[in-house]
Structures are given as C-alpha cells and as structure tokens.
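User: Structure tokens for this complex, please. No commentary.
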Amino acid sequence: MSKIIKAEQGTSFIKGIFKPEYSNLLILIVMLTLTAVLQKNFFEIKAIVRNINAFMPLILLTMGGAVVIISGGLDLSAGSALSLFTCVLTTVMKKNDPVTGIYALLITFGVAIFVGVINGIGIGYLRIPPVIVTFATSYMWLGIALFLRPTPGGESVDWFKGFYNFNAVQGAPEILKKFGSYIPPALILIIIACFLWFIISKTKTGRYIYAVGSNNDSAYASGINTAKIQLMACIINSIFIFLAALFFVGQNQSGDARMGDPLTLRAIASAVVGGIALTGGRGSVYFALVGALIMSFVNKIIFFANIPNAYQTLVSGLIVIIAIAGPIAYTLYNRERA
Amino acid sequence: MGVELNRPKSITQIIFEKYKKVVVAFILIILLFVLGEIILSNFLRVDQVLLTLKLASFTAFFALCQMIVISAGGGGLDLSVGYMATMTAVFTASIMDGQNGNLWIAVIVALAFGVAVGLSNGLLTAYLKLPPLVVTMAMANILQGIINVYTAGRNITGKPSPVLTIIAAKSTGSFPNVVFILIVLTILVMIVLNKTKLGMILFGVGSNERTAYLSGFNVKLVRCIAFTISGVLASLIGLLLIGNMGIAFKDMGSNYVMPSIAAAVVGGVSLSGGDGNYFGVILGAIFLQTLTNLLIAMGWGDAGKWLGFGIVLFALLIVYVSNRRTR
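Assistant:
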C-alpha cells in the first residue's frame, strides 16, 4: 500500500509529462518543431494566419464536440449541421443587399439553436443512445441542406467576407485591416468560443456538465436536471458550429450541403487525442483544442514531408491510433511495473 | 400480492415480451409496403419485395458484424467493416480474375485480412482500452489508405469467380441466391447464440462485465474475439459484394457502415451491450431498405430521401429505444 502511495507521490518529470493531458502538449510541441523545420516560412505572419485559417473549422467543431462528449453525449451530426448552417446563410443572403446579412445571421442562429435543441432532446430527454440519435439527425440536417442547396453555391453579402479576412471587405477602416493582418478573424472566433466556454465553465451549468457526464444516475439522484444539462451542452456545441459556419461562408461565399461530412469523425478523434474520455465526464475543452491542433498539424506535416498523396489517409489513420494509444500504453506499462 | 406478482406468465405473454421488437419491426415493414402500394400503386409486387430483400441482405450481413461487437459491450462499434470489405474486394478481384479455381486462394486471403484487421481492432480496444469508435474509425482510414496506395497509378483489375457471381448476384427462379445465404446464416447465428455456451458468454460479458469477470470469463479475450469475428465476417462480405457488383471499386463498402448500425439498433440490439436477436436485426435492415426504396420511388430527390430517412429513424428511435425517466 505504502509502495503505491510512494509511487504516486514520486512525481518525476517524466511521469508528469506522461499524464495523458500533458503528453499532448509535448506531442504538440514536437509537431510544431517538425512543421517549423519543414515549412520554411512557418514563423511569418502570413503563414501563421494561413495555418489558423486552415485549422479553424476543425478546432471549433472539436471544442463543441468535446462539450457534448463531456456531458455524456456524442455528436455525429456536427458536420452535417455545419453544412446546413452554411446553406441557410447563403440562401438568406442576397448579394447586393447588405441588410440581408443581418437577417441571415439571426435566422441561422435560430436554426443553430433548433439543431442543438433537437439533438439535446434526443440525447437528454428521450435518452436514446447518442451515437444513433445524432446519426438520425445528421440525415435530417443533410436533407434540409440539400433541399436548400442541391448543388454547392449561393450568395453572400460583401461584409460577410470580414469573417474570413478584413482586407477583403470593401471600405473597411484602415485600422481594422491592419489589425486583421496580425489577428485574423478566425482567431477572434476561436477566442470568442474559448471565452464563451470559460464563462460557462465557471457557472453551475459548467460543473453540472461534468457531473452529468461522469455519472448520469448519481447526478440525477442529487437533484440535477440531467436532461436540461445535456440539452445545454448540445446548444453550446451548436453555437460553436455556427461560429465555424460564419467563417466558412466568409471564406468561400457559398454553401455546400456536403462540405462538413469529413469533419464529423475527425472532430471526435481530435477530442479523444486531446484527452477527452468518450465515456464522458473527463477531459478539458482547452485540451481538446490542443488535440485538434495536433490532428491539423499531422495533415500539415504529411503535406510538407512530401509523402505521396495516396499515403495520406493511411498515415493520418496510423497517427490517430498512435496518438491515443501512446499515453495509455505508457500508463498501463507503468502500472504493471509498480 | 406477492404470489400474484410471481405468478408464471403464460407462454404467449413470454413470447410476446421477448419478441415484442421483432413483431413491431415486422408490422412496420408491412405498413411501409402498404403505404407504398397506396401512394405509388405498384410498390407491393413480388419482384419488388425480393429486390428489397436482396439489397437488405448486404446491410444485414454488415449488421451481424455490428451486433456481435455491440453485444460484447464496452461501447463496441465497428466502423471499419465497410473498408474492410472494400479492401478484400479490391485485392481478391485480381487474385480471382474470373476463375473458379482461384476462389479458394481468395477466401484464404480474405480470412487472413479479416483476422489481421479484426485482431488489431480487438487488441487495441480490449487490451489497451481505447475507445472502439475512434479506433475503428482510424482503422477505416488506414484501410482506405491501403486501398488508395494499392490503386494509385493502376486500375483495379479482375473479376469475381463465376461461383461467387452465382451466389451473390444471380437468382434461382426469381428468388435471389444471396437471400438463401442470409437464411442459412440466420439459422446458424441463432443456434450459436441461443443454444450454445458461446452466446451466453458473449451476452454475459456484454450485459455485466464485472459479473462475467467474477464468474471466471476472460472479458478482454471475449471482446477481442468479437472484433476478430467482425473483421473476418466483413472480409467475407467483401467477397459477396464483389460477386454482386462484378467489379471492385474504391468506395463499394463504405455506404453500408452507418445503416448497419442503425439496422442493429432498430432490430433491438441494445447499444450498451448484452442483448440482441439477429432475426430482429434482419428485420431492421429490411425496414431501412424498404424505407429507402419508398423514399427514392417517391421521387423527391436526394433531399427528400435523406430528410425522410432521418425523420423516420428519429421517430422510430423515440418509440423504440427511448429510455425516458418518469418523475
């Protein structure tokens, strides 16, 4: 017994690093170094901005997905929801009428809440296994998105480009353009999401999300309205996806009913790489962000390492397994030795 | 009072309770066909029903993989079955090259692939305790990658052996041969799961891990074997798929993955493990296929098809799987 306690107290540097959470930071640093070596202009502002823009949708979807997973759910509809939001935005907006942009924002925000509520009712109130209920809803979002936009396209007002790049907006103040070349809108959206979660995590709801996720029945028995908390988690997720959709429409000025599909499972994998337990209740949303960064850098490195196109899915699949297996294998090995 | 509660139920009651979901699924299928007949007026024809059966059997085969993995518990799901089947199909196409004599080599290759992939899934999930959802997804990526690497710069050549074509694509009279396979498989699965110790072990491990462990079963081994079986089955389904299609292509199996999970759930398999009835799963697959056919036949296009699919599945889940708490 004393041996075990001693082993736990002896927090050597190596052991601290191999705590699942911190080992991720280590992996991230290794990846950053690798990318910096491979990408010649990695530290130039332009390259950094380009990287942030490329990573942004996955980061937001991962953070949102992480909230749902922590609350004991899972969202397989995130990608289709993202596509749906882009379709709604580009359908409502008319190119020559700047006011429609505001309508589009409001309407899509309403749609986002609706999506979150439906998922939340399925997971929380009806207590259908999250994997299968969000699978069903993903087809609903896909169907609506295809109804609005059978082929990729649509219109967008000019100022919407500001969600992607302030410089692209005609008549934007010089100071904003200058600011935007250092701090891109994508980063601002990510910071907004982090800030939102920071506030929520300080409230009762934030703590309840963890409580519900780690043990639904105990949380219920201690008087928490578990269904409502899971519904809230789904709405938070939906809002994060909404932010990603704003960026996407700003970037492309079009909506696409299929663009989000590949992101769904990648977001879940990123969350797991970031140390979120799929059983719920454990993990940190900020570390999920780290997971998303790791997954994004994987693609970047594969791209810069001149690995032939055909090998890319193979390598990224292998890296996912290594990234989630590494820390766990290490702790198992340590436990057996002790 | 107590006596009354313990009164043995009548046989009809027991049968109804045990097969409630099967009965409901059956009624739903008939309802769909009747609905289709009313709306489209030539939906309920023998050849239409048989075609539905044929298409549904492939989903049902994949759903067997899912059922075995899900029943073993631990949040099991196998997202790699689609690309497992595709990989086998792509590789064995050139091996068989339209010759019956090469079929046995193809089967051995399929078995080897299945064991290799299934076992790695099993080892990673059961022994390293990694979440099955992510592991099998990553495995699907890896298999897709292998297919990409193999097909980069060359065409997928080869044809299935004639025997395989007869089994998977042809019909006896108007009855598709692949449905015979499904019937035989169903009987086999029902016997193994309900009449032998194997089924008891599988469901035991799924329904209560700790009890199973304390009763002396090796929980990890059982889960690992469940994944291996799933891999082998998926690989063999790959042979049937290429037999049916006649050629192999890159994405031939990936569209079956999520419907197979849905079929399992609609068929009464509990996603938390320890429960499942393959007959129900087959009815689930037939239901989903009928629904898809109906929605396609209505001619609402892709949008209506997916929206209808989503809404009906959602509604079905509410009625079927929902586990509402009553205050």
